[in-house]
Amino acid sequence: MIGSRTDTKLLYQDGEVYLLDGEDRVVRFALADVYRGNEAIRYISPGYEIDAPYGCGHTMQRQELSEDKFVLKVLAQDSDYDLCLIDTINSSSYNLRKNGVFYPLNDVPGVEEYLDLCFPYVKEAVTKEDGMVWMLPISVYMPELIVQEETLQEMGVSLQRNMNWEEFSSVIAGMTQKEKGFISLSRMVCSMLFFQQYFGQYNSVDQEIFRQNMKGMQKIGSDLWLAPYREDKRYLFYYIRYMGDYTNPFLKEYYYGENAKVYPMPKLSEGDANTATCILLAVNPASSHLEETLDFIADYVAWQMAEEEAPLFFTEPVPAAGSFESEIYQLYQNGTIAYTVDADAYLEGFYEMLDGEKGMEEYIKDTERKLKIYFGE
Question: Quick one: which of 86, 57, 90 has its CA closest to 283?
């Protein structure tokens, strides 16, 4: 025995790996069958990202950079990294999509088949106008509300599915402080999602729809918090974003409960798609390990397609109608991927405007000038 990890129930002995799967069944395989022994594939990310790519037997080396250094390295096409890991929730993602240069993945074995398994909007988000696949989606985060309808009815809170921001803001404004203690949501989260939705459709805040939504957002106030889960399952609604939170059986059993429902987050208009963000892998065209990096991409998509539990952004399998899982599926089915605009272009004076410390027209005038520069670059 070379070593064992008792906490993960992993054992290596005489070239064989032994471990327990999720149902405590023993799995055995030869390390030589999966270990590639390659020179390390170097990938960079803007800080810590929870969804690091599974190595599929490849040696992986990660470097976490500040967002500014990450963007500069990607745009400069330095040759000292092979992959970059991008979360479209980061404020640099719009810039990287517009100005970044990445290696096309169309001819990598399995990539086209992998993207065909994704919901169409996911494939569209990583495909340029000329058909070039410039990034590989590895996770899609769909922010939504986990709702206890019985508690809503008991407390007389009129939350409904598919609300716009004005309607949702009115619901929040009508809640007592006690009722607000039964929700987990913050004004910052609402504002961030609103701007992702808004800049997906508009490049200007000098619009009547912006003014109307801001009048609604001013009702939300700053006294909302992302509270921890209540063990008594007595709550109105919880904001969640990560895929793992939807599928975690522990959360479902002990916190969500069997009667929990999934509601879309508010939107600009009722018929809009649900706005999601995406974790992406992109290949550096200047990589000095390009062949090995493309081999890894091929292995990664093959592994992902062979997994028993498909990612939530795959179209198959379709869950049974009426189940908790089917509600999640419907959220992911009707989606769009947001590439986030740099907050420096719109956030200055925003919360002061919501709190009435700055006039809305003054905010619009100041922000409009910055947006024209940002989108015109």
Answer: 86
The dihedral sign for the CA sequence 186, 188, 190, 196: negative
3 state SS for 146-204:
EECHHHHHHHCCCCCCCCEHHHHHHHHHCCCHHHHCCEECCHHHHHHHHHHHHHCCCCC
Q: Residue 21 above 60 pLDDT?
A: yes
Half-sphere exposure of 185 (CA within 13 A, CB side): 26
Query: What pLDDT, on the 0 to 100 scale, is given for residue 184?
Result: 92
- Burial category of 27 from C-beta neighbours within 10 Å (exposed 0-12, middle 13-18, buried 19 and up): exposed
CB 82 within 8 A of CB 43: yes
CA–CA gap between residue 174 and residue 266 (Å, rounded) = 16
Residue in 139, 162, 158, 141 with CA at minimum distance from that of residue 149:
158
- For residues 364 and 76, give the distance between their C-alpha atoms in angstroms, rounded to a whole number: 34
The conformation of residue 89, written as its DSSP 8-state character, comes to T
Rounding to the nearest 10 degrees, give the CA dihedral for residues 154, 158, 163, 164: -140
Cα 141 from Cα 143, distance rounded (Å): 6
Pick from 267, 264, 235: nearest CA to 161: 264
What's the predicted TM-score (pTM) here? 0.87
**Residue 300: partners with Cβ closer than 8 Å, 6 or more residues away:** 53, 54, 56, 136, 138, 281
**Do the Cβ atoms of 140 and 88 come closer than 8 Å?**
no
Least confident of 191-200, 221-230, 320-329: 221-230
User: Which residues make Cβ contacts (< 8 Å) with residue 162, sequence separation at least 6?
Assistant: 264, 267, 270
What lies within 8 Å, CB to CB, of 14 at 6+ separation is: none
pLDDT tens-digit profile of 71-99? 999 999 888 999 999 999 998 899 999 88
Return d(Cα 172, Cα 157) in angstroms, integer.
Answer: 9
Contacts of 116 (CB under 8 A, 6+ apart): 123
Q: CA-to-CA distance for 184 and 164, rounded, in angstroms? A: 19
Model confidence at 103: pLDDT above 90: yes
Q: Residue 3: pLDDT above 60?
A: no
